[in-house]
Design a protein that fits this description.
alpha+beta, 60s Ribosomal Protein L30, Chain: A, Phosphoribosyl-aminoimidazole Synthetase, Chain A, domain 2, 2 domains, 6-stranded mixed beta sheet
Length: about 350
Amino acid sequence: MKIITMAHGAGGEAMQRLIKDVILKHLRFDPEVSVEVSLEDLDDSAVVEDIVLTTDAHTVKPIFFPGGDIGVLAVSGTINDLAVMGAEPLALSSSLVIEEGFPIEDLERILESMRRTCERAGVPIVTGDTKVVERNALDGIIVTTAGVGRRSESLDRNIEVVRRYREFEGRWLKDSNVRDGDAIIVSGYIGDHGIAILSFREGYGFESEIQSDVKPLNKMIERALHEGGVVAMKDPTRGGLANALNEFAAKSGVGIEIFEEKIPVREAVWAACEMLGIDALEIGNEGCVVLAVVREMAESVLQALKETEEGKDAEIIGYATKNVRGVVMRTSVGGRKIVEPPVGDPVPRIC
């Protein structure tokens, strides 16, 4: 009998196979409403008659970690999924599944964190649900959030700028929009979130230097769209940068070449990855975005990102190209390395 494993929820190839071979098989049908971006597109959100919709369940362990908690994670993750489609996030819903015996003090701490994050992003929680389950049924609490957004003037202006330089038929920032010559930008350091959680959970000690990067990015993304030229965006959560880039490449039918020395990674994260034998490119993040931008606007978008607090460490890390297949990294010593899509995130239960 085939069973679910932890890898099926880790954002890599195992999860993609589960979604395509099992979940989509049962949920395919032709709706009566107009669906521009559907479940089968496997983007970060769906678009139904210009309404953008996404949902996420959060099972992070531990629920409090260096730099954040399950509350800020739930709100930020859903807002970011809306924003990377080019939408203006409007409102959230939240569902709490709480284990009997969970401290009310901890619940209030989580809710206060959610409130502060909503205020920072300017996006309220407007409806929700609460359930309580028996002791030992789960690890304390699960927070599920859903979000709704709408088309923005900044998205329309952004696409107008794209069309000055090349053909662009779409109306949203989908993974399949990347073309030969587009620049690839990362908005900040990678690996912080996954390493902070793993270190804190296992007692490795790196959490004294590394904290999660979790935060809402809608205002930073709005700034990039106002500059114009962005064709696709993705938040590299489960499966990390490696998975996000491979999704761009596979869905767009174009190769991506990146440069190791341009990828922003903290020394402490490199050290932790080396000690633990894991790849920083495969570690999940919760406070950065990968952008594909028409080459002519890449420097302008980079500068716009750097002018924000959330994007001050942004870098152009490579380019889409017809000259390679998949994702290839030029190493700091002059070689080339194929960046495979990970089977799963090497750090489970990070979101």
